[in-house]
Amino acid sequence: MDRLSAVGCALCPLAAAGWLAACDGQSEPAGGGRAVGRVDAVHGKRVTLSELCDVAPQPPKELKWPALAHPASPQVGTQYRWVNVWATWCKPCVEELPLLSRSFAEWQKKQHPLTLTLLSVDADAAAAQSFIAARPELPKTLLLQDASAASSWLGELGLSSSSAIPVHLVLDAGDKLLCARAGGIGPQDLDRFHRALFP
Fold first, then answer.
1. Cα–Cα distance, 157 to 153 (Å, whole number)
2. Between the CA of residue 155 and those of 86, 114, 171, what are the distances in Å?
3. Which residue intervals of the chain are DSSP H helices?
4. What is d(CA 194, CA 199) in angstroms, rounded to the nearest whole number?
5. Is the pLDDT of residue 29 over 70?
6. Mean pLDDT in the chain?
7. Which CATH superfamily is domain 3-197 in?
8. Which residue, 182, 149, 156, is CA-closest to 23?
9. Cβ neighbour number for residue 157 with a 10 Å cutoff
């Protein structure tokens, strides 16, 4: 399911963060223009990250993590890290978590070195921790020290500070940003990402 059809039209208030993330299926990429590859990519066609992302810095840039409740663990033995920025109150975020969990488990079975890291922008850290604890198939989640910092951090990544969550980041082995994409993701999107990362 493509992001353009997967994300319904609604406003997702980032409680306590003071900004709105428009979950707008008609929104354009942060850089303007239409992301043709995300809609028109044909199954089996060679896919590049620049076709799939709102931001794909060339060369990749060092990711500056926001202030976290606990530091992010360094990557060990992986080629890529996928960071899913989400919140318990965000319906598209919650709906795609099982898909992400299944897909990453399948990729690991295929010996594809890609790890999934969750980053919660919940103002209520206990709610996020409780949500993850009830779902043992999901990895532990990182938490922002201050949920209100999410907006400016997204801007630093090159996304609009009002970008819809979930936001998906792809990092290389050195935690350099290869891709940032705002909005929900579906099975076809993940297939395209997989083909771009492991051609």
1. 7
2. 16, 25, 17
3. 3-6, 36-40, 49-52, 91-109, 125-133, 150-156, 187-197
4. 8
5. no
6. 78
7. Glutaredoxin (3.40.30.10)
8. 182
9. 23
